[in-house]
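Hi F.,

I've been meaning to write this up properly since the lab meeting, where we talked about keeping a consistent format for the predictions we share between groups. The idea is simple: the sequence comes first, exactly as it goes in, then the structure tokens exactly as they come out, then a line or two of notes. No screenshots and no reformatting. I'm using this chain as the first example so we have something concrete to point to.
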Amino acid sequence: MLNQNNERELSYLVKVDAITPMNADRLECAHIGGWHCVVSKGEFKVGDPAVYFEIDSQLPDVEPFSSMEFLKSKDFKIKTQKIRGEYSQGLLMPISAFGWTFDDTQFCGGVDVIRDSDGNIHLLDDESRFLTKILNVTYSTIGDNFRKSNGVDKYKKMAQRHPNIFKRRWARWLMKRTWGKKLLFLFFGKAKDKKSDWPYWVVKTDEERIQNCGFMLNLDTKWIATEKIDGSSTTFTLYGDKFLVCSRNVVFNTPSKEDKCFYDTNIYTEMAEKYCMKDKMKEALKDVRNYIGKEIKFITIQAETYGSGVQKRDYGLKEHDMAIFNVIFGCADGHVERLNPIDGKEFADKYQLPYVPVISEAMTLPTVVEEVVAMADGKSEIDGGMREGIVFRSIDGTHSFKSVSNEFLIKYHG
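Output, unedited:
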């Protein structure tokens, strides 16, 4: 699930939506939004509050996790599994396992209240439900922790400089809330702690999974479907004469092949050079200004870089390649225009740039999450192998989500 900063949360408070039987005497399936979790029979009932850990989570080797034998056998990693014919995605634990309680005597606008072991209050409908940092949950893949981290946490630096203050209960309470951290930084932070190199006009890439936003299937719209590629997010942006190349969180200011990144070679600047991105974007910036009839301040192109050594799925490549999935124009009047995949592919073709395969230009989707997840299975149009999934974007471009193949997750990330 994405938080308000468009960052993925791996752990959060939920309510159990449904319980369905399985072909097993001691097991059943708990449903949380569009996620399915295999649990012990009778452990949960509909409406129970619980702590949910998404797939890709790495849990710390501490209580209550360290005493759970099945987690030890998996090195405390949460992955997609198939148990008695049922896909199980994530781990569901009762709040009592953490010494937390459901406070049915206190309500905030009619919203249920969870009280943790320190007495802090968590609500099920705001940012306080997110527990990733509180429970010290990280990504199960080391590379993801590097690529998706935000670098050195400015708030952590702040706390390290004032240990006596940040040991106090009120400070710890504030640090668990987004607004609270910002307030503390106003008084105790330093300008040098801030990450100043990320281009403020670029929005970082991430799509919500359909399991977390099933309500979108009730929208009265057609959908454009494109193939989701298993790679690493790559951003090129040109603002005036300033050209930058970025991974998901790191900016390569030079940019040059010598700029270090997670991989053995800098695959991001490699793509910039391979496709002459700076020159082509300069040309496009002039063309678009004339085409739209407005002054354009910047152009941003976001792509997925894939191939040898990038992910476990190398698409049969011994080198690297990329496929564009976003083309964004920033107008001088503050308006930002993002091309839909149909127009985006036309743009990419014009400048001889690769674009993600477009599967359908006007698709009507079923209203059941499980059916949309099943649609993710299929063959990749890149090499005919297994497809990672599909990204859906509404015709008007205002809504989007991804559906990832369970078969793909079992084979490559299970």
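Notes:
The first helix runs from residue 69 to 72.
The longest strand covers residues 296-307.

If this format works for you, I'll send the rest the same way.

G.
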